[in-house]
Design goal:
globular, about 15% strand, 8-stranded parallel β-sheet, alpha/beta
Amino acid sequence: MSDTMLRLASTRVDDASSITINGRSVGQGHPTLVIAEIGVNHDGRLDRALALVESAWEAGADAVKLQLFKASRLVHAKARLASYQRTTGAASPVELLQRYELTEDEIARVIEAIRQTGMLPLATPFSPEDAATIRDFGLPAIKLASPDLVNPLLIDAAAELSLPMLVSTGASRQDEIETAVDHLRSQDATFALLHCVSSYPTLEADAELGRIGELARRFEVPAGYSDHTQNLSAGALAVAARATIIEKHLTHDRTAKGPDHAASADPRQFREYTFRLREAEQMVGTSAASRDVAPAEQDVRIQSRQSLVARNTINAGRPVTREDLTCQRPGTGIPTTKLEDVLGMIALSDIPAGSMLDWTDLNVDSTQAARRAA
């Protein structure tokens, strides 16, 4: 990027608040934070993860993001593969995700490799226990994936870390985003919102980049874009639409088998993607209509949302407590958004540990019935 382009990028109008990540200001008026999302594109291999870190640095990324999860903790036995995952050959989401788990020692080595380049190491947790791992590794910020925008258990665990939070909004309605923002602010969280379309890969006609500016204006926070398109200009266009954070999947091979490779950029493409993005940093964008769930997101919304699950056996006649509950995919049971409604309800019969809760398991009076139907 030329000196002229850098000067233009640094003088963008400051029309939304900024956040600070490891001493770096992120928001309008500051250079775009470019995140290379490794995700599960390392295919569960340490050597491949380290190679992707090197590729991210060579491509000009500012940060590299990992995903922290245990498949058995994330996904309930009732979960089914989303349509874009069915080409992987896995029989179930648990089997699929277990292929991509890294050990804590391997994660530590990847994080150290990221730090040695000067890039920021970031990670997405998928359970409250994973959020604690973010703290243990001393990471400077926490990323929440789109399905967990409506997961108060994970949001609360993340907020307890007192780190800046980058929160994706894929497969969400406008009212769900507003509820999440209210929740984050009630926790005194510092956060940015990332527009995202939960379709892999995202078609250009579904990208809706105008929503980025709407997030910035409506909520007065830094707004960004988590990009699942195959268009190398999408990052540049997102910056023109007021994105101050860009997250893009990086892979060693877009034709490789796996859930995210096709929606990613290979090292050569990522370099071109970053170059175009940097060229567009001085541009601003426009607003879009209120967020709603696109038809292309419906399948992923169901399979990747989480439901309330009994952490331990809840005996008949006993009220449900927060300690009794955890959350797992898919979102076919009582949604995590109904957590407060469920607390205090009486179990009509024994609910075994590991059971996905159903309203028929609980004593629901007329007031509670009206609340949960809303």
